[in-house]
Amino acid sequence: FVDLGAWAVQLTLLVGARPYLTRLLSHDDSEVPGLALVVWAKILVSDAGRVGLPGKDTYRAFYKLLHSERMSGYHRCLAALCLSVACRSRAAVKAGLLEVGVLHLVADGLHSSKEVPLRWMLCLLCAEVCRDFEAAAVAALNGGASDALLVALGDSSPEVRASAVYAVGCVLAASVNGIGATAQGAPVSATVT
Predict the structure, then answer these.
(1) How far apart are the first and last CA of the chain?
(2) What is the Cα–Cα distance from 170 to 156, expressed in whole angstroms?
């Protein structure tokens, strides 16, 4: 139904489907959360994230699906997209994702995933978590996310390269005040060149 357009998404929201869709994300069967992810992606993207996620910890359900090995790459990509949209101008979601270790998940996914859309959305997720959030940007620079983004800059896919450039820009812009040393003790400028 939500594939019919923005009006269908608005009607879905009008009937109050958000709480039910949220509960479906934590269903035991792997098919049901996948379908709920498709609907959530349509809702969040068509409304440019203004709707947001219900409740203060709903992002954890999306994070669990992104982290889950039983979900397909397509569904993990949708979970990363939903988290990216949820991060826009929401400091609480960004802080929560940083706390649960999303940057490590991004780094691992960028190194191990063979699927272009998933790598693309992981770079976008890293960018949105770090955008205007100094603590996340410094964590990305000092952790494995910065190395993974630098590798993604040479990816064979132009979409992945473009989102990696965006992510590197967000990380560097947010960390201007927090630039210190990397985990190896070398200045950041020495590791980026």
Answers:
(1) 49
(2) 22
CA 156 – CA 175 distance, rounded (Å): 28
3-state DSSP of 116-169: HHHHHHHHHHHHHHHCCCHHHHHHHHHCHHHHHHHHHCCCCCHHHHHHHHHHHH
65-97 tens-digit pLDDT: 888 888 888 889 988 988 888 888 688 889 999
Sign of CA dihedral 80, 85, 61, 22: negative
pTM of the model: 0.80
pLDDT range class, residue 144, cuts 50, 70, 90: confident
Q: What does the alpha-carbon distance between residue 35 and residue 64 come to, in Å, rounded to a whole number? A: 15
Residues 105, 144 contacting (CB under 8 angstroms)? no
